[in-house]
Amino acid sequence: MAASNDQRLERRARDVERDVPDVVVAARASNEGSIARVGACGESNRIQPKSDIVTSRRVASRAMSREWRRGRLSFKEKFIDPCVVDGVLVRQYASAEAFAKSTATSTAGRRDDDDDDDDDRVPGTGFTVWDASALLGKYVGREDVWERLTAGKRRDGTRAPTTTLELGAGTGLATLLVASSEIASREEGGLVCVMTDLPEVVALARANARENKEENGGRVPRRVLLATRGVRWGREEDVEALPEAIRWPDVVLGADLMYTSDEGVIRALAKTTGMLVRDSGRVAVFAACREHRPESIELFVSILETEGFTVRRVPASTVHPDYPASDDEFEILECWRR
Fold first, then answer.
1. Does 63 reside within a domain?
2. Is residue 159 within 8 Å of 73, Cβ to Cβ?
3. 276 lies in which domain range?
4. What DSSP letter does each residue of 85-96 carry, written as one string?
5. Closest-CA residue to 252 (of 225, 219, 279, 220)
6. What pLDDT is attached to residue 40?
7. Are 94 and 127 in contact (CB under 8 A)?
8. Strand partners of residue 195
9. Is the pLDDT of residue 22 over 70?
10. CB neighbours of 147 closer than 8 A, spacing ≥ 6?
């Protein structure tokens, strides 16, 4: 009997999993210990078991088309309560320390023994959901947008799974929205979604990815492979260390990454983008918040344009009808390798 399309896709996912076993997010066993959550007064509260998580998805989900903006939320809603967007539930924390306390892990700033110039510190911004993540996930998950972004892969005729890789993924919301969208279920050849961030931050994306897998009551189909990896911007060795199956993604993603006035960080982001988007016709898509550092956005765009990219600027007001946004506050940058 001929194998069904779902069976073929699951086999391809297993092939990729065999190639990148150290980064693939496995479905958690039902009796595995859950992550602790820091409460409003600093006490450590255990996350609900899976049955309660499903209930939380229904109860906590806001009418995002009406009140989805972060600025309208209370401190508790921003930093303590789970954030639910279109059925995707992600945990968030007020700081790196709060996350470390909840998981009994260390998020001390990373410093390599052989590199005294490494000043990477774990930013607290990576542990909470930002508006641009929702915008990016909903934009890339639109069928018309996805068809255009992945046209280069289809022209190549490869039967390998389509791969997305998010830089600075934080909670992982943007990638999880794409992975749970309708396009994920229909993607011919299968879909691999990779979330990267600083090694200490990516642990949160990995936990959120696990919670959102279909096996755990989430919306990400079994045949969609989720993976996480620590990647520092500007570090060639971090990109070169990526397993070959995910090193050259079809679509690179990034949400609200140009938030800093540090020119070195922006140049490092541009360098990593250039290393990942190697072939003509491939693309990186960023949701940028112009309220934060518009000058950093312009610097990033100018660097990419001089490095062989064409940048298409998409007004935020056209991103998704359920997520109204001002063109003065946000924009989408489609960065196409020429």
1. no
2. no
3. 5-29+131-337
4. ETTEEE---SSH
5. 279
6. 27
7. yes
8. 166, 228
9. no
10. none
Please write the tens of the pLDDT for every residue from 113-123.
333 334 445 55
Give the Cβ contact number of residue 110 at 10 Å.
16
Residue 296 lies in a domain: yes
The per-residue pLDDT for range 215-272, each reduced to its tens digit, is: 999 999 999 999 999 999 999 999 999 999 899 999 999 999 999 999 999 999 999 9
Q: What is the CATH number of the domain that holds 225?
A: 3.40.50.150
Q: Is residue 153 part of a domain?
A: yes
| Dihedral angle computed from the Cα positions of residues 166, 172, 176 and 178, in that order, rounded to the nearest 10 degrees | -30
Number of domains composing the chain: 1
Which residues lie closer than 8 Å to 226 by C-beta, 6 or more apart?
A: 24, 25, 175, 176, 179, 193, 194, 195, 209, 210, 213, 220
Q: How far apart are CA 17 and CA 41, in angstroms?
A: 41
Instruction: Using CB atoms within 10 Å of the CB of residue 140, give its burial: 0 to 12 exposed, 13 to 18 middle, 19+ buried.
Output: buried
Nearest to 192 by CA among 217, 156, 155, 229: 229
